[in-house]
Design goal:
The radius of gyration is 17 Å and the shape is elongated. By secondary structure, it is mainly α. The protein contains six helices and no strands.
Amino acid sequence: MRWRGIKSQSQLARISGVSQSCIHHILTRQDGYWPSRRTLLRLARALGTTAPWLTDGVAAAPAEPPPERTGASEPGGYCAEICALVSRQPHSAQRQILAAVRLMTRP
């Protein structure tokens, strides 16, 4: 919700068409509540993401190759979360994080 600038459960309810009480149950994980696929799809659409990202934190594989883009590609799954977290850091910390990731991903 923060990434999309949505400040409240009520605001997300208005945008998605999902009741605020349902959103509350999902966010608090009350009593093992699990939303329907339709609810997940509505929330995903309102949040500009996918149902697999909401449920598992990973991006779903695209059904077909994405169209070619100019510039940076749009991040998905774990990449979106990493980008959001790193973008809040000062530039010097961003450079250090990138250097650490490069070390960790060396073959």
